[in-house]
Amino acid sequence: MTRHDPYVAVLHMLDHAEEAIALAAGRSAQDLDADRTFALALTKLVEIIGEAAGRVSTEIQDAHP
Q1: The whole model's pTM is what?
Q2: Measuring CA to CA, how many Å separate 54 from each of 1, 23, 29, 37?
């Protein structure tokens, strides 16, 4: 699979979502206020997911609503 493969962005989204879930496991919303590093790391992962979502073609979006 190359970076030109239309599903690469989807795979990036899945990879970073899994990483965010693992990072947040056992943590609470209060931890976001108490642990700046945790909050920044989680924010960055969500940002990467959003950027990857913007690269998903409309054809893929239509095929997988």
Answers
A1: 0.83
A2: 19, 23, 27, 26
